Amino acid sequence: MALMDRWRALGFAVACCLPLALSPAAAQSAYLDAMEDMPLMDGLAETGESVVFDKPSGRILRSTAQGDVAPESVEAFYAETLPQLGWTRADEYEREGEGRHLVFTREGEQLDIQILPQAGGSEVRFSIEPR
Fold first, then answer.
1. pLDDT at 25
2. Best CA proximity match to 112, nearest among 80, 73, 70, 64
3. How many CB atoms lie within 10 A of CB 27?
4. What confidence tens digit (pLDDT) does each residue in 42-79 have?
5. For the residues of 60-98, what is the DSSP string, one character each?
6. Coil, strand, or helix at residue 120?
7. Are 116 and 125 within 8 A, CB to CB?
8. Which of 16-20, 85-89, 122-126 has the lowest mean pLDDT?
9. What residue ranges do the domains of the chain occupy?
10. Interatomic CA distance for residues 91 and 94, integer angstroms
């Protein structure tokens, strides 16, 4: 193959893959410390220590993050991103004083994401436990 043809093929491959690399889920590279497969939305930072218990019936994980991100943006990010990681949305609800909860399931586990509005942003509480 001529050198020019190789450069064209490389350019074509880059052009095809670039939209995937620029998508919000693909651009996300940070993950929660205790949950190695749980993306941390840009603008959020983990706070405090995470809780991790490994039991014969499954793992129990708790982690918290906060940042200057609107609660609606947090909800939209996780609603779009988590199904790509194998999570199925099971429920959503809101409780007075407890913010909005998003519930997902995957392989015998349940994930509860609690989104609490704060001045100028959100606090997000992640909880995984066996179903």
1. 43
2. 64
3. 10
4. 999 999 889 999 988 899 999 999 999 999 999 999 99
5. EEEEEEEES--HHHHHHHHHHHGGGGT-EEEEEEEETTT
6. coil
7. yes
8. 16-20
9. 31-130
10. 10
Q: Judge contact between 74 and 89, C-beta under 8 A.
A: no
Q: 10: number of CA atoms within 13 Å, CB side?
A: 7
Here the tokens at position 6 are: 């190789």
Residue 36's CB is within 10 A of a number of other CB atoms, namely 7
In sequence order, which residues have a C-beta less than 8 Å from that of residue 125 and are 6 or more positions away? 62, 63, 64, 112, 113, 114, 116
pTM for the full model? 0.75
Distance CA 54, CA 61 (A): 9
Q: In this structure, what token pair is assigned to residue 112?
A: 């509860």
Residue 36 token pair: 């190695």
Kindly state the tokens that stand for 77: 């990010």
